């Protein structure tokens, strides 16, 4: 695990740390080619400089966010924000369904919107193929 991501996880209370450790392990396993770093103070994984997935500690849960998740056509993910992101929130490690997570991570490799060039395109997202 990336050192900064481990430090982020280690800074959390036990229940949240357990969720984040599991998420990081599964993401690293399923997105082996992704770059992991702290971005906007949270662990995020990138493919070719494009943000794919990340998580953050919110007040009463851990949020797992897929930047292109609205295009996954998955009932388990909820719309987040005004672009193409979707999320799921966890309050215990038992809520993390590894089978669903693996499927979402596989989709995140092939279904991507170009967030990397969002500013250059003045807020217009384009689908990557």
TrEMBL record:
Any Pfam family matching the protein: DUF1801
Domain of life where this protein originates: Bacteria
Record-linked InterPro entries: YdhG-like
Residues of the YdhG-like domain: 17-107
Protein name in UniProt: PF08818 domain protein
Species of origin: Sporocytophaga myxococcoides
């Amino acid at each position: 695990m990336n050192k900064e991501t481990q430090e982020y996880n280690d800074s959390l209370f036990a229940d949240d740390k357990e969720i984040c450790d599991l998420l990081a392990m599964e993401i690293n396993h399923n997105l082996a080619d992704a770059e992991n770093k702290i971005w906007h103070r949270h662990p995020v994984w990138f493919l070719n400089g494009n943000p794919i997935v990340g998580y953050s500690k919110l007040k009463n849960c851990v949020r797992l966010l897929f930047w292109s998740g609205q295009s996954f056509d998955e009932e388990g993910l909820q719309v987040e924000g005004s672009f193409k992101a979707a999320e799921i929130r966890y309050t215990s490690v038992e809520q993390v369904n590894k089978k669903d997570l693996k499927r979402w991570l596989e989709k995140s490799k092939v279904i991507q919107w170009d967030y990397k060039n969002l500013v250059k395109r003045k807020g217009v997202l384009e689908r990557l193929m």
